[in-house]
Amino acid sequence: MKFGLKIGDQEYSIPDYYTLGQWAKMNQWDMRDPNDWPFLMADALGIGNPAPLMQMKIEDEIKFNFALSIVLSALDLKPKDLEPEIDGYKMMKLDEITLGTWVDLDVLASENKNQDKLFAKLYDMPLETAKEIPITRALPALKMYSDWRRSIYRSYSALFDYKDINEGEDLSLGNKSMTPAHAWYETIMVLCSGNFRDLEYAIQRPFKEAFNYLAWKKTKMLEEQMELNKQKQKMKIK
Fold this sequence. Notes:
This protein folds into 2 domains: 70 residues, no CATH class; 157 residues, no CATH class. Helix content is 56%, strand content 6%. The protein is built from 12 helices and 4 strands. The strands form 2 sheets. Strands 1-2 form a two-stranded antiparallel sheet. Helix 3 crosses helix 4 and helix 6 packs across helix 8. The longest helix has 31 residues. The relative contact order is 0.10.
């Protein structure tokens, strides 16, 4: 059963459920930040111009908050069971992915607005198909991937300088002055020893194989640096 909401002279329908495409738009806003609420509601209702909602929030906050609660009432985020196959599309086996696929997923996961693209990648599903999946069916896979991604970063904590952080915080690799895509490109070029011709080979290797090599290489570099520091210290003593 659909409910209606009147804003100004326009009537808007409250959906029975939100699709992954709608959720991806909504999810770029911070639900904890009241300043984002008009934009979140605009995306939920498909309103191109959020100005009337911003005005409503300023003029009658109680009315606005009531309207927002109605809009969000269709947002069912209760945990559901993971579906290994959805509409004929099977979820990839994460432990078997290549480095290139890891990077693609990791870059998408670094921004909340890419949840629909991330889900489509996980199921090798056309994006337009993924956008129409009810969010209740998509969330278990997205949560499972998020938990798995975090566990991998934790397993290679020394390599990535990882520290356990709060849910929702960025896990992305590298210098925060770089985009995740740039940071991963730099990492892949380390694997290739700077040889572009070897890039395709590197990204087709299993991701754990690549991480193990990077971890070994980092350990060797630290050992060499420690030995160099010892030699410098001996020279100072002499």
